[in-house]
Amino acid sequence: MLLYKELAYQIVGAAMEVHRELGGGFLEAVYEDALCHELNLRSIPYQRQVEIPVYYKGVRMGRYFADLLANKTCCPMIRANSWNSWLLLFF
Questions:
Q1: Domain count of the chain?
Q2: Which of 1, 51, 53, 76 has the fewest beta carbons closer than 10 A?
């Protein structure tokens, strides 16, 4: 079962719209800015550069900085190179 199925569907749709408009070949920052704009247009709340503490068996191991955190539950990661771009979703 997919948790947050509707949110995942909305984020993937937003990312597809960004890729449809921009195509490939830009730096990750361009796609991130465009995705944030698209999330705003779709009224999907998000935060940028969110610090998330990392715990292992109850012990804090460090911290992770998420590029984006959508609706306080989903961490879309944008990866790009000179010929393509990807969106990975983590909940």
A1: 1
A2: 1
CB atoms within 10 A of CB 20: 8
What tens digit of pLDDT does each residue of 28-37 get?
889 899 999 9
In this prediction the pTM is: 0.80
Query: Which DSSP letter does residue 4 get?
Result: T
Residue with tokens 């995942």: 8
Closest CA to 34 of 8, 14, 59: 14
d(CA 26, CA 55): 34
Domain of 57, in residue numbers: 5-90
Calpha distance 86→91 (Å, rounded)? 17
CA nearest neighbour of 86 among 77, 2, 47, 73: 77
